[in-house]
Amino acid sequence: MQALDAVMDGLDIETYLLCGSEQEGKDLALRLGLELGLGQVDVMFCEFDGYGVRVRVRKYVHKPGDPYRWLAPAAAKGGPS
């Protein structure tokens, strides 16, 4: 089993981005997800303080309603049965 198989929902990345507005910070955060090879990410939190934004983005591994790997029988996950 890979560690990624144990992720229940998603992975969050939080950072501070220098920018001129909250909207610019959100746009930069979305681009950061693409530049990191994560594809589409969702902005979960964004707060502008005059110099930049504290932002948290989430890359969903399993969105609600997806087939969850952790619910599959052990043999299907490659583990002991």
Q: What keywords describe this structure?
A:
single chain, 81 residues, alpha+beta, 3-stranded antiparallel β-sheet, 2 helices, elongated
Structural summary, described in words:
The chain has 81 residues and is an alpha+beta fold. The protein has helices at residues 22-35, 74-77, and strands spanning 10-18, 42-48, 52-60. The chain has a 3-stranded antiparallel β-sheet, covered by helices on one side. The longest helix is centred in the middle third of the chain and has 14 residues, at 22-35. The model has no long low-confidence stretch (mean pLDDT 88).
SSE topology:
Blueprint: E1 10-18, H1 22-35, E2 42-48, E3 52-60, H2 74-77
- The radius of gyration over CA amounts to 17 Å
Q: Output the number of helix runs.
A: 2
Largest beta-sheet details: 3 strands, antiparallel
The helix content is 10-25%
Strand content: 25-35%
Given as residue ranges, the uncertain stretches (5+ residues, pLDDT < 50) are none
Q: What's the helix-strand series?
A: EHEEH
Shape descriptor: elongated
Structure class: alpha+beta
What does the oligomeric state look like here?
single chain
- Cross-sheet strand order for the largest sheet: 1-3-2
| CA(first)-CA(last) distance | 13 Å
